[in-house]
C-alpha cells in the first residue's frame, strides 16, 4: 500500500470528483463511485459537484476504478447535463470542493452548463471489414497486386522485404481510404450536429472515428442519417454509434485564473 | 450501460450508450475538464495507472500483418479457408511471438470498436477486457485477467 505522493495522512478519506452539474439538476441516487463510496452532490450556489469519498490506498486506474467513473458519469449524463472531469480528479475534502472548485468558478460553470443543456455527445466509429477493403485495395492498385503475386508463393524469409513493402503500401492505401470515408461521414452527419470533433484513429482498421455534439431535438434525424450511412456501407464498414455521452470532446477551455 | 438495438432492428449500426465500454475509457482518460485547472491548493496527487489504448502505430509488424492478410485472402479465394480462419490467422500473423494472448489482444484492440463479428451482448464487456490486458502486460495483475 502506498499513500498519496504528497504524504497526506491516508487515514483521512479524500474526495473524488466526477463532474459538475447545476444544483437544480435531476440527480440519480444510489450510485457507487470509484473506491466504492456513494456518490453525492456538493452544492455551492447554483452549481454542484458529483463526488464520492474514499480512503486512498494506492494508485487509481484499475478496471473497477475506470468502470466506476464511467458508470457514474454515464448515469448522470442520462438524466441531466454534466461537465465531466477527467479521470483521477481527487481533492482533499468536501469543503475544498465547494471552496476551491465551485465557488471561484461559479458563474463560469453556470453559463457553460446552460449552454450545454439539452445537448449530448455521440461518437460514430467505423471499422473496415478487412476482407472487403483488402479486395478493394488489390483491385485498385496494380503495384499491390504485383507484390502480392510475387510474395505469395515464396517462402517467408525469401520475400521478407517485399512483404514489408506490400504491407506498407496497403497501410498507405487504407490511410487514403480512411481520409475519404471520414470526410463522407462528417459531410453526411455535420448538418445535424452543433460541433464536430474528429478523433485519432485507433488503428489501421479504423475507417472513421468522429465525435458529434447533437441537440436532443435533432437526435432522431442524426440517428437516421447514421443508419442510412450504415446501410450504405454494410459489408464494407461496420458503424458503431456511442451515446448519448457527456460532452467529453466538447468541454470548453477552463476560465483564466482570476 | 446498455447495448441495445434501439431503432429499426434492420439497421447494421451497432448502438451503445453510457459507461462500461472500452470506447469510453479513452474518453475519461484523455478528455474532460482537468481538475488542476481549477483546484491548486487542495489537490491530492494520486498516482494513476493510465492505459494507452492507442498503442498500435504503423510498424514493420503491422505491415507484415497486412501482407499476410492478403495472402490468406488468396487462400480463401481457392476455397481453402473460411473467414474465421482468415481472422484467426491474422491475429497471430506478424505479431511478436512471445505470448499468444498478447498478439491477439493487439489485433482485437485494433478492431477495438467491435471489429470482428461480435454480438451486442458481448460488446458490453468483451472489448473492455481486451484493452485492459494492455496495462497488465506491463503490470501483471492476475486479478484483472481472471475476471
Overall description:
The complex is a heterodimer of chains A (258) and B (147). Chain A is of the alpha+beta class and 258 residues long. Helix content of chain A is 40%, strand content 23%. Chain A folds into 2 domains: 14-117, no CATH class; 120-250, no CATH class. Chain A is built from 7 helices and 9 strands, in the order βββαββααβαααββαβ. In chain A, helix 4 (130-140) crosses helix 5 (142-152) and helix 5 (142-152) packs antiparallel against helix 6. The radius of gyration of chain A is 24 Å and the shape is elongated. With 147 residues, chain B is mainly alpha-helical. Chain B is 49% helix and 2% strand. Chain B is built from 6 helices and 1 strand; from the N terminus they run βαααααα. In chain B, helix 4 packs across helix 5. The longest helix of chain B is centred in the last third of the chain and has 19 residues, at 120-138. The chains are: A alpha+beta (258), B mainly alpha (147). At the A-B interface, strand 1, helix 1, strand 4, strand 5 and helix 2 of A face strand 1, helix 1, helix 2, helix 3 and helix 5 of B. Strand 9 (237-245) of chain A pairs parallel with strand 1 of chain B. Chain B: It holds the Pfam family Gas_vesicle. Chain B: Belongs to the gas vesicle GvpA family. Chain B: Gas vesicles are hollow, gas filled proteinaceous nanostructures found in some microorganisms. During planktonic growth they allow positioning of the organism at a favorable depth for light or nutrient acquisition. GvpA forms the protein shell. Chain B: It comes from Actinocorallia aurantiaca.
Amino acid at each position: 500500500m502506498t499513500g498519496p505522493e504528497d504524504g497526506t495522512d491516508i487515514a483521512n478519506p479524500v474526495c473524488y470528483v466526477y463532474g459538475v452539474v447545476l444544483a437544480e439538476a435531476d440527480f440519480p441516487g444510489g450510485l457507487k463511485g470509484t473506491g466504492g463510496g456513494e456518490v453525492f452532490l456538493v452544492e455551492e450556489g447554483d452549481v454542484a459537484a458529483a463526488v464520492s469519498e474514499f480512503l486512498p490506498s494506492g494508485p487509481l486506474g484499475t478496471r473497477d476504478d475506470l468502470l466506476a467513473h464511467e458508470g457514474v458519469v454515464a448515469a448522470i449524463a442520462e438524466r441531466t447535463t454534466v461537465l465531466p472531469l477527467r479521470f483521477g480528479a481527487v481533492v482533499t475534502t468536501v469543503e475544498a470542493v465547494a471552496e476551491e472548485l465551485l465557488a471561484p468558478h461559479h458563474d463560469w460553470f453556470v453559463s457553460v452548463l446552460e449552454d450545454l443543456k439539452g445537448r449530448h455527445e455521440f461518437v460514430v466509429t467505423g471499422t473496415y471489414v478487412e476482407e472487403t477493403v483488402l479486395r478493394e485495395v488489390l483491385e485498385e492498385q496494380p503495384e499491390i497486386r504485383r507484390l502480392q503475386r510475387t510474395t505469395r508463393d515464396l517462402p517467408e524469409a525469401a520475400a521478407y522485404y517485399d512483404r514489408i513493402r506490400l504491407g506498407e503500401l496497403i497501410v498507405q492505401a487504407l490511410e487514403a481510404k480512411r481520409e475519404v470515408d471520414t470526410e463522407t461521414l462528417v459531410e453526411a452527419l455535420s448538418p445535424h450536429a452543433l460541433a464536430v470533433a474528429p478523433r485519432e484513429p485507433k488503428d489501421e482498421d479504423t475507417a472513421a472515428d468522429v465525435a458529434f455534439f447533437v441537440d436532443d431535438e435533432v437526435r432522431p434525424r442524426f440517428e437516421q442519417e447514421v443508419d442510412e450511412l450504415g446501410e450504405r456501407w454494410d459489408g464494407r464498414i461496420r458503424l458503431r454509434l456511442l451515446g448519448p455521452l457527456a460532452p467529453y470532446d466538447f468541454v470548453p477551455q477552463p476560465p483564466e485564473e482570476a | 450501460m446498455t447495448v441495445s438495438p434501439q431503432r429499426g432492428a434492420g439497421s447494421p449500426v451497432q448502438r451503445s450508450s453510457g459507461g462500461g465500454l472500452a470506447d469510453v475509457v479513452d474518453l475519461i482518460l484523455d478528455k474532460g475538464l482537468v481538475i488542476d485547472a481549477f483546484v491548486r491548493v487542495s489537490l491530492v496527487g494520486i498516482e494513476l495507472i493510465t492505459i494507452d489504448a492507442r498503442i498500435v502505430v504503423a510498424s514493420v509488424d503491422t505491415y507484415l500483418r497486412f501482407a499476410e492478410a492478403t495472402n490468406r485472402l488468396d487462400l480463401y479465394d481457392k476455397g481453402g479457408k473460411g473467414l474465421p480462419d482468415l481472422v484467426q490467422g491474422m491475429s497471430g500473423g506478424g505479431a511478436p511471438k512471445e505470448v499468444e494472448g498478447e498478439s491477439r489482444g493487439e489485433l482485437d484492440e485494433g478492431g477495438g470498436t467491435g471489429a470482428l463479428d461480435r454480438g451486442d451482448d458481448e460488446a458490453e464487456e468483451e472489448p473492455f477486457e481486451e484493452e485492459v490486458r494492455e496495462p497488465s502486460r506491463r503490470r501483471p495483475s492476475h486479478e484483472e485477467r481472471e475476471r
